[in-house]
């Protein structure tokens, strides 16, 4: 066996090599500690996909700040601290995304993109008032409002459905709206 025995480089040696410009040294550090870093991230996230994102964030910070490593601790300890900090940052971001305000203003937080936001309670008061007002409208008039305003039928189609002239349907709808408005103003 008189051959040369290849000695495994220490983490500190790899850091020195990375600082000197050897990017492969950082790859060796990553390969050496990635599994344990993922384990730490999993303890915080309990989700493998999020844990991988956390490790990526930590490795990005490590690659940027390894030049400032002080060699006062193990590289593994420093990396795990970066993972812990990245995990806490990740938790804060997720908490901010899903926080619902319970303040007195009763507003629910909306999605970041207002086109995707849906607040089912936004028009609830108006919906209840309209339903209450519809109850006092005679059935023939209520049917006119329902077919035209709610179902979106044309005046002619609604009239054909009810077997009346379009003018009759138009007047029933107008009368229904007037009764509803009167009822809603009285309720206020």
TrEMBL record:
<dbReference type="GO" id="GO:0003677">
    <property type="term" value="F:DNA binding"/>
</dbReference>
<dbReference type="InterPro" id="IPR036388">
    <property type="entry name" value="WH-like_DNA-bd_sf"/>
</dbReference>
<keyword id="KW-0805">Transcription regulation</keyword>
<keyword id="KW-0731">Sigma factor</keyword>
<keyword id="KW-0804">Transcription</keyword>
<dbReference type="GO" id="GO:0006352">
    <property type="term" value="P:DNA-templated transcription initiation"/>
</dbReference>
<dbReference type="InterPro" id="IPR014284">
    <property type="entry name" value="RNA_pol_sigma-70_dom"/>
</dbReference>
<feature type="domain" description="RNA polymerase sigma factor 70 region 4 type 2">
    <location>
        <begin position="129"/>
        <end position="178"/>
    </location>
</feature>
<dbReference type="InterPro" id="IPR013325">
    <property type="entry name" value="RNA_pol_sigma_r2"/>
</dbReference>
<feature type="domain" description="RNA polymerase sigma-70 region 2">
    <location>
        <begin position="29"/>
        <end position="95"/>
    </location>
</feature>
<dbReference type="GO" id="GO:0016987">
    <property type="term" value="F:sigma factor activity"/>
</dbReference>
<dbReference type="InterPro" id="IPR013249">
    <property type="entry name" value="RNA_pol_sigma70_r4_t2"/>
</dbReference>
<keyword id="KW-0238">DNA-binding</keyword>
<dbReference type="InterPro" id="IPR013324">
    <property type="entry name" value="RNA_pol_sigma_r3/r4-like"/>
</dbReference>
<dbReference type="Pfam" id="PF08281">
    <property type="entry name" value="Sigma70_r4_2"/>
</dbReference>
<dbReference type="InterPro" id="IPR039425">
    <property type="entry name" value="RNA_pol_sigma-70-like"/>
</dbReference>
<protein>
    <submittedName>
        <fullName>Sigma-70 family RNA polymerase sigma factor</fullName>
    </submittedName>
</protein>
<dbReference type="InterPro" id="IPR007627">
    <property type="entry name" value="RNA_pol_sigma70_r2"/>
</dbReference>
<comment type="similarity">
    <text>Belongs to the sigma-70 factor family. ECF subfamily.</text>
</comment>
<dbReference type="Pfam" id="PF04542">
    <property type="entry name" value="Sigma70_r2"/>
</dbReference>
């Amino acid at each position: 066996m008189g051959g040369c025995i290849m000695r495994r480089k220490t983490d500190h040696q790899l850091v020195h090599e990375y600082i000197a410009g050897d990017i492969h040294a950082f790859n060796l550090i990553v390969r050496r500690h990635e599994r344990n870093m993922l384990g730490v991230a999993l303890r915080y996230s309990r989700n493998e996909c999020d844990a991988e994102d956390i490790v990526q964030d930590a490795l990005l910070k490590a690659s940027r700040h390894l030049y400032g490593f002080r060699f006062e601790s193990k590289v593994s300890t420093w990396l795990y601290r970066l993972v812990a900090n990245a995990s806490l940052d990740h938790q804060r971001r997720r908490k901010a995304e899903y926080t619902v305000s319970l303040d007195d203003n009763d507003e629910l937080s909306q999605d970041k993109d207002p086109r995707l936001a849906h607040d089912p309670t936004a028009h609830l008061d108006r919906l209840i008032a309209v339903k209450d007002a519809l109850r006092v409208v005679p059935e023939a008039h209520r049917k006119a409002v329902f077919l035209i305003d709610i179902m979106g039928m044309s005046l002619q189609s609604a009239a054909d459905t009810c077997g009346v002239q379009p003018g009759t349907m138009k007047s029933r709808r107008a009368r229904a709206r007037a009764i509803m408005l009167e009822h809603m103003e009285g309720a206020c």
